[in-house]
Design a protein that fits this description.
Beta-Lactamase; 29 helices; 24% strand; Diguanylate cyclase (GGDEF)-like protein/PAS domain S-box-containing protein; PAS_fold_3; PAS; PAS-like_dom_sf
Length: 740
């Protein structure tokens, strides 16, 4: 209820007036069917308003819900006429008289009706009217059963008022999806000079210039609308007399309850006078601030833009571009070819920009791109995109032309703060790039350049390591918490660098992810892990997938290919992901995990509890295993709170039917408490560090021998034989942790 208003819709059907029942709907309960019927009636009694009255309007009874809605004491209303609850305009209406005629005829019907509360405010009800018949089939009285819909009515009236206001103030028309005009309001018809019957049934194309109708942009406009997407903008139209009309318009597809677009509504404002005046002014402005050859902003516009960015107090990045191998184009093919190349390059740069960035041509074959608030990493990626885009071949009169680009980079406030100083610093950096034989980007800051050079050297070393087979796998056993027998193993990737020695995973995994080399590295780990486990009968393998791999559309095909090539049973492969992977693109991550799950593999959440995990994510994604992060295991030794957290995780896992592995177990006390709390599997330095594959084979053989020596009884390896798994991780977070 809003502002004291409620609404009732009334519907009626004839029922016999038999005694013993408040509703007049049947005898007292005599069996299960009657009991069910009266239980339903009791529910309606509690949730709906009920009002019984004679055909002369005398109120016979009303339920508690009706008393609450109206605010009158029951004794005030019983015996009075229903007219006291109705607004005068309702009593005087023809619809009111028709309603009484229908009730006297014993008809069932529904209505929305407004009633007046004791405080004088209005309520709206949606009610059903049920005439009750006596033994001779005549209407004895009527029962009105209703529900309050005041808010719904108010919202509907508000929408209707808005629509009426729009209709009075704007040009409104509707169209079918083939462009047929379905309706047009008076303002629309008056603006274009047509009578309604001259528009209805004709095509939208009649309102546009013939040259526009046949264009690709016009076709795309309608295709966008057919796909259920809105279009808005400034549109040039033609009136009946051929006059030019400019409309600021929005085209909105209307969607039905099933999600299907049904028609298009156009809301438009005539801005012809504004456009004519603005066009001349903007043309003069544009000529003064844009390069005529490329259409890009010129140096004056560039400085103005940089000053505006500086005034906002945010950082700024300046990329100073100079085309490589451009002069020979003018010399050999002529200036027309050179102008064509400049125009193409300008268009490519324009397409690379986001809404808050600007590209300008400042002379010859030099361009500048300005972007606010970009990190050094983002700048590197942007520069690489520019280099890749510019080097794409350009065709001119049957000749393929190739150019490159060198880029100098300056950043505020570190390098400079004013536009002129930033351009000077970027120009100096550009000179260094050209001196290094071009086709590269160079930062003005030596520190940034050193970091970039170091990163590029590490990427080259990683790439060489993949080619030179410098990576190996080590395996860390995972044990039954109570039996201390090996249930599975986790494989961790290691890099044996020829000069640096053993490189910690924490040093090279981030570089691999940032550079994209994690994809080939992850594929190598997956293949190697599956290859090793084939030699360990009854044992499976789990591979940790990087977020980069989850975003890779080919990861499902890769896993399928590795399973086919190695012959590994999919049920022996377990894939681990970290919590953060789920939230960068939850929909895509879920789709990928479901696709992997369909192959028959198991899915594990690694480092559970350190990120964004929730019951919702556990229920929404197809997990089989939770791995409790080491920080929670460490907390067990500190106090009771840490142990309660682990107990809570174990309880959640049992409720969701998930297996649990405790990572980083390093003390006997931790192991003892985990056993007491029902944790089935543990892993950590207490029981074993990561070891080469040969050691795992030997450890499994010794374990089998011990089991055989014990006569095959007890909690030995046989107790876990059906579910032995070997877990191979690419070495993301857990690899770094276990290398310490």
């Amino acid at each position: 209820m809003a502002d004291g208003i409620a609404t009732t819709t009334l519907a009626s059907s004839p029922v016999s007036d038999r005694p013993t029942d408040t509703w007049g709907c049947g005898p007292a309960p005599g069996g299960p069917h009657d009991e069910l019927l009266h239980a339903k009636m009791a529910a309606i009694e509690r949730s709906h308003t009920l009002l019984g009255f004679r055909l002369d309007g005398t109120i016979l009874y009303l339920n508690e819900r009706m008393v609450d809605v109206l605010g009158y004491p029951r004794e005030v209303l019983v015996g009075r006429g229903t007219d006291m609850l109705l607004p005068p305009e309702t009593i005087d209406s023809a619809a009111y008289r028709e309603r009484w005629a229908a009730m006297r005829a014993g008809q069932y019907f529904e209505r929305e009706i407004s009633l007046i509360r004791v405080d004088g405010t209005a309520i709206w009800l949606r009610s059903t009217y049920h005439p009750v018949l006596d033994a001779e089939g005549r209407v004895d009285h009527v029962i009105a059963c209703g529900s309050v819909i005041t808010e719904e009515v108010l919202l509907r009236r508000d929408r209707e008022a808005q629509i009426e206001a729009i209709d009075k103030s704007q040009c409104v028309a509707s169209f079918a999806f083939d462009g047929t005009i379905l309706s047009a309001n008076d303002r629309f018809c008056a603006l274009f000079g047509y009578e309604p019957d001259e528009l209805i049934g004709r095509n939208h194309a009649m309102l546009r210039d013939a040259g526009q109708v046949g264009t690709l942009d016009y076709a795309r406009h309608w295709e966008t609308l057919r796909n259920g997407q809105s279009c808005a903008g400034l549109f040039r139209c033609l009136g009946k007399a051929g006059q030019e009309i400019w409309l600021q318009a929005t085209y909105c597809p209307l969607i039905d309850a099933a999600g299907t677009p049904t028609r298009i509504v156009k809301y438009a404002t005539d801005v012809t006078s504004n456009v004519t005046l603005a066009s001349a002014f903007e043309d003069a402005q544009r000529r003064s601030q844009h390069d005529t050859a490329t259409g890009l902003p010129n140096r004056a516009r560039l400085i103005s833009f940089m000053e505006a960015v500086a005034e906002k107090g945010c950082g700024m990045v300046v990329l100073y571009l100079d085309l490589d191998r451009f002069k020979p184009i003018n010399d050999s093919l002529g200036h027309h070819a050179g102008d064509h190349v400049l125009a193409v390059i300008a268009d490519r740069l324009r397409r690379l920009l986001s809404y808050d960035q600007l590209a300008a041509r400042i002379g010859g074959d030099e361009f500048v791109i300005v972007a606010p608030d970009m990190s050094a990493d983002a700048v590197e990626a942007a520069c690489q995109r520019v280099i890749d885009e510019v080097r794409e071949p350009i065709r001119f009169e049957g000749v393929e032309i190739g150019v490159g680009v060198s880029i100098g980079i300056a950043m505020s406030p570190g390098d400079a703060s004013t536009p002129d100083e930033l351009l000077r610093c970027a120009d100096i950096a550009l000179y260094r790039a050209k001196q290094a034989r071009g086709q590269r980007f160079v930062f003005y800051s030596n520190a940034t350049n050193d970091r970039l050079l170091s990163y590029q050297e590490q990427v080259d070393a990683l790439r060489a390591g993949l080619v030179g087979q410098q990576f190996v796998l080590e395996f860390q056993p995972r044990y039954g918490a109570a039996s201390r027998t090996i249930h599975s193993v986790e494989a961790l990737v290691r890099w044996n660098h020829p000069s640096r020695g053993r490189v910690p995973p924490g040093d090279f995994i981030p570089i691999a992810e940032r550079s994209g080399l994690i994809v080939p590295l992850g594929e190598w780990v997956l293949r190697e892990a599956c290859r090793h486990v084939i030699g360990w009968p009854g044992i499976g393998v789990s591979v940790n997938l990087s977020p980069v791999q989850i975003r890779d559309s080919d990861v499902i095909a890769l896993v399928r290919d590795v399973l086919d090539q190695t012959g590994l049973d999919p049920t022996r492969l377990e894939l681990e992901i970290t919590e953060g992977t789920l939230f960068s693109d939850a929909a895509r991550a879920r789709e990928t995990l479901l696709g992997l799950k369909a192959l028959g593999v198991r899915i594990a959440m690694d480092d559970f509890g350190v990120g964004y995990s929730s019951l919702g994510s556990l229920r929404s994604f197809p997990f089989d295993v939770l791995k409790i992060d080491k920080q929670f295991i460490d907390a067990i030794d500190i106090g009771s709170a840490g142990r309660e957290i682990v107990r809570a995780i174990l309880t959640i896992a049992r409720a969701l039917d998930l297996s649990v592995t405790a990572e980083g177990v390093e003390t006997n006390n931790q192991l003892s408490l985990l056993v007491d709390d029902g944790c089935a599997e543990v892993q950590g330095f207490l029981l074993s560090r990561p070891v080469p594959p040969g050691r795992i084979s030997a450890m499994l053989e010794r374990q089998v021998k011990r089991w055989r020596a014990s006569g095959g009884a007890g909690a030995g390896i046989a107790a876990h034989a059906p579910r032995l798994t070997a877990h191979a991780a690419v070495g993301m977070g857990c690899a770094a942790q276990n290398s310490s």
